[in-house]
Design brief:
There is one protein chain. With 170 residues, this protein is an all-alpha fold. It has 7 helices and no strands. It is globular and about 50 Å long.
């Protein structure tokens, strides 16, 4: 019943794990502050209007969307959302982004081959520079990356937990 916003970071090397998370949090913060641009909004709306009908071509899938709407007391994705999308404005979307997504309330789950190091890097104010492999970044990118590497995510150890994966899924 509680909607969520989630983002995933593709697997990266252990040495770039903390930097990748800092970069992702920076991008979420930028997304909240700046919202969508008009062209992004229009492309997304057009995509959804064209693809939502494809989600439930079979009767069983249509039934699932109907049951979800009834049990969560939300609009039916297939029958109601397309009409709502046509009336939606960029201002409405950017306002909703600011109201419903808070970068300071993120819950983070990280999986690492070196979990102790990642835990330390994320819960202590450590500079975690990116390690490039096979490319030479521009000076502008180096400057941007240096600022991100210094970012303190302010993840308190008292609210964090390190869990070993050995046998966790058995």
């Amino acid at each position: 019943r509680q909607p969520h916003y989630q983002f995933w970071i593709r697997p990266v090397s252990n040495e770039n794990g903390a930097f990748s998370l800092k970069l992702a949090v920076s991008e979420v913060t930028r997304f909240i502050e700046e919202g969508l641009e008009e062209d992004e909004f229009e492309r997304t709306k057009h995509y959804l209007l064209g693809n939502i009908p494809l989600l439930a071509q079979q009767p069983g899938r249509r039934l699932l969307f109907d049951l979800e709407a009834q049990t969560t007391d939300t609009p039916n994705m297939i029958t109601e959302i397309p009409a709502l999308l046509t009336d939606l404005s960029l201002k409405d979307v950017n306002s909703a982004i600011k109201r419903h997504i808070q970068a300071d309330r993120l819950r983070i789950v990280a999986v690492s081959g070196d979990s102790e190091q990642l835990f330390q890097q994320l819960t202590e104010d450590m500079t975690t520079p990116i390690v490039y492999s096979g490319i030479q970044p521009t000076e502008a990118l180096k400057t941007q990356d240096a600022a991100i590497a210094k970012k303190d995510l302010r993840i308190p150890k008292s609210r964090s937990k390190l869990v070993q994966a050995n046998g966790i899924f058995r």
